Structures are given as C-alpha cells and as structure tokens.
Amino acid sequence: MKQITILLSLLLGTELLADIEKGKAAYTANCAICHTVNGGRAMGPDFNIVSYTRTKEEIQQYAENPSSLYRKFGYSANAMPTLPLNEDDLSDIAEYISSLQPFKKWMVKKKI
Ligand code: HEC
C-alpha cells in the first residue's frame, strides 16, 4: 500500500509539472504579446506580480472572461481580448502563472 501511495504521488507530481510546461507553451503562444514574465508592464500587467496578487482560480476566470471581470479586478475599461482557449489550456496557463512566485522560497513573513 505504501509503495502505491508513493507511486501515485510521484505520478501526480509529474502530471502537475507537465501541466505547468504545457501552460508555459500556451502562455507564450497566447499571452506573451501583452504580458511579460519578469519584464515589467507591457500592455497588461507582468505575470510575476499577478502570481502574488491573484489565485489560480482568479487567473483562470479572468483569462476565460475578461470583459465580465475587469471591473471587479479594478480596471475602468477592458482592453484584453477573450481568447479562443479551452478549459484545459486555461487551467494549464493559470497553473503556470501561479507557479511563478519567484521569491516565495526565501520570503519569510515576520511575526510582530
Ligand atoms: C491584447 C493584449 C492581451 C492579451 C493577448 C492577453 N491579455 Fe491579459 N490583460 C491585458 C490587459 C491590457 C490587462 C489589464 C486590464 C485591461 O486594461 O483590460 C490584462 C489583464 C489580465 C489579468 C488581470 C491581472 C490582474 O491581476 O489585474 C489576467 C489574469 C490576465 N490578463 C491574463 C491573461 C492570460 C492568461 C492571457 C493569455 C491566455 C492574456 N491575459 C492575454 C491584455 C492582454
């Protein structure tokens, strides 16, 4: 049983990595023209920042339907197109973006 659990978690782990890789490719093809990763603000906000400020679910929902969410996200107008991506692509892209968080590993919150 223990071996099965280990094997299963290994498989799930590689699946997540594969999703992030797929998401990266889909990001490059569909989002990179307007969103950089660690490149400052282009037309839309940089995804390194977004990886801190938004959850995976929020990123996925926004990419799926920006015109219905831009007000909730604090914008006064919508300049982002609704892209013809399916659920899997959107989920992979959101997985990739929320995995960025470049400083998370060494950022420690201080308790006051
Ligand atoms: C044509 C340019 C363009 C493309 C392509 C584009 N975006 Fe955007 N995106 C924007 C702009 C501009 C904003 C800022 C809101 C606005 O002005 O409409 C934005 C905002 C966002 C936000 C909200 C950020 C925040 O936290 O405030 C997310 C999430 C996002 N985009 C994800 C994506 C994803 C994922 C893709 C690719 C699948 C993508 N965008 C493709 C232009 C684009």
From TrEMBL:
Pfam families: Cytochrom_C
All residue ranges annotated as the Cytochrome c domain in the record: 18-101
Residues in coiled coil: none
Record keyword Electron transport present: yes
Iron keyword on record: yes
Top-level taxonomic group: Bacteria
GO molecular function, one term: heme binding
Keyword entries, A-Z: Electron transport, Heme, Iron, Metal-binding, Transport
Listed InterPro entries: Cyt_c-like_dom, Cyt_c-like_dom_sf, Cytochrome_c550/c551-like
PANTHER family xrefs: CYTOCHROME C-553-LIKE
Name under which the protein is recorded: Cytochrome c
